[in-house]
Design a protein that fits this description.
With 271 residues, the protein is α+β, with helices and mostly antiparallel strands. 22% of the residues lie in helices and 28% in strands. It has a five-stranded mixed β-sheet with strand order 9-12-11-10-13, sandwiched between helices. Strands 2-1-5-8 form a four-stranded antiparallel β-sheet, covered by helices on one side. Strand 6 and strand 7 form a beta hairpin.
C-alpha cells in the first residue's frame, strides 16, 4: 500500500521501502532522511551521452484511490499546480531531496569496476601530508583534479569541470579543518599553467593529447557535422586563438575548415 521511492529528474529509479502500515512507512522515511545526511559529496551531474544536471528526490507514496487529495506544488517556474500521481498510480504524501554519493575514476584504477568516493581520494592525497618537506599541489585541469609533487602523481577524473572544482573545494575545506598546511590548493589552472599541466599529464600517463584536452568524461561524444573536419563536443571550450576562425586541433587538417561545438541553453552552435 505504501512505498518510499527515489526519482532521478522525475523518473522512478528504485524502491527503498514497502509496507502496508502508514505509520511505519513515515518512521522509515524520517530515518532515511537522517541517514542520508552522511553523504559527503553529492552527485550533481550524470553522463547520458551528454553531461546533464541531475536531481534526486525521495517520495513516500501510496496506491492511488478514488477520493485522494493531491498536493499543490510549484513547478520549476514557480507556478502552482496540482501534483499528478507518479506513474499514474501512486499518490505522493511527502518528498525530500535525496543525496547520492558521487563516485570517481582515479588514474591507475579500472574506470568502471573500481570507482571511488571522496573518502578514498583522501587517503593518497594525505600520504606524507604531515611532512613539511613533502609539499603537494592540487589543481583543476578541465574535468581533472591533479595532485602532485616531485615524487608523487595522482589524478581524479570527474564528469565535468564544475564537479572537479567542487571536489577541489571540498578537499581544501577538509585540509583546513584538519590544519594540514603541506597541501597547496591552486584552484583552476589558467591559460599560462595549462600547457605545463598538459606536459605533466602526458609524461605520467602517456595519454594522447586528444584525451588530455577532454573536458568531460563522454566516451562517444556528439559530433558537429562538417565536410572538412570534426571536433567532438568532449573538447568544448578549447582556447581559440581567433574567435572568428577556430584553429583545428588536429595537425593533419590544418589547411581545412573546422567545426567547433559550443554549448548553449538550446543545444549547440557550430562554427
Amino acid at each position: 500500500m505504501y512505498r518510499i521511492i527515489v526519482t532521478q529528474n522525475g523518473v522512478v529509479k528504485k524502491t527503498l521501502y514497502k509496507s502496508n502500515d502508514i505509520e511505519k512507512s513515515f518512521i522509515r522515511f524520517r530515518g532515511i532522511k537522517k541517514e542520508n545526511k552522511s553523504v559527503l559529496f553529492t552527485k550533481e551531474h550524470i553522463n547520458t551521452n551528454a553531461i546533464i544536471p541531475v536531481q534526486f528526490k525521495m517520495h513516500i507514496v501510496k496506491n492511488s484511490e478514488d477520493g485522494d487529495k493531491f498536493r499543490v506544488v510549484r513547478d520549476v517556474y514557480g507556478k502552482t499546480k496540482v501534483e499528478e500521481p507518479i506513474l499514474g498510480k501512486w499518490t505522493v504524501l511527502d518528498d525530500h531531496p535525496y543525496r547520492v554519493e558521487e563516485k570517481f575514476w582515479m588514474y591507475g584504477r579500472d574506470s568502471k569496476k573500481n570507482r571511488i568516493t571522496i573518502h578514498e581520494i583522501v587517503k593518497p592525497l594525505m600520504l606524507h601530508a604531515y611532512k613539511k618537506t613533502m609539499v603537494k599541489q592540487v589543481i583543476v585541469v578541465h574535468n581533472k583534479l591533479i595532485f602532485y609533487n616531485e615524487d608523487e602523481f595522482g589524478m581524479v577524473l570527474c564528469k565535468c569541470k564544475k564537479d572537479a572544482q567542487r571536489l577541489h573545494h571540498a578537499l581544501a575545506k577538509a585540509c583546513k579543518k584538519n590544519k594540514i598546511h603541506s597541501i597547496m590548493f591552486m584552484g583552476t589552472a589558467c591559460e599560462v599553467v595549462l600547457s605545463r599541466m598538459y606536459d605533466l599529464i602526458k609524461e605520467k600517463t602517456g595519454w594522447p593529447m586528444s584525451k588530455i584536452y577532454r573536458k568531460t568524461t563522454i566516451n562517444e561524444p556528439k559530433i558537429a557535422q562538417n565536410d572538412a573536419c570534426l571536433i567532438s563536443s568532449a573538447m568544448v571550450g578549447v582556447t581559440l586563438y581567433d574567435s572568428s576562425k577556430p584553429t583545428c586541433l588536429f595537425s593533419s587538417f590544418k589547411s581545412m575548415n573546422c567545426s567547433y561545438v559550443i554549448p548553449s541553453k538550446c543545444g549547440t552552435k557550430a562554427w
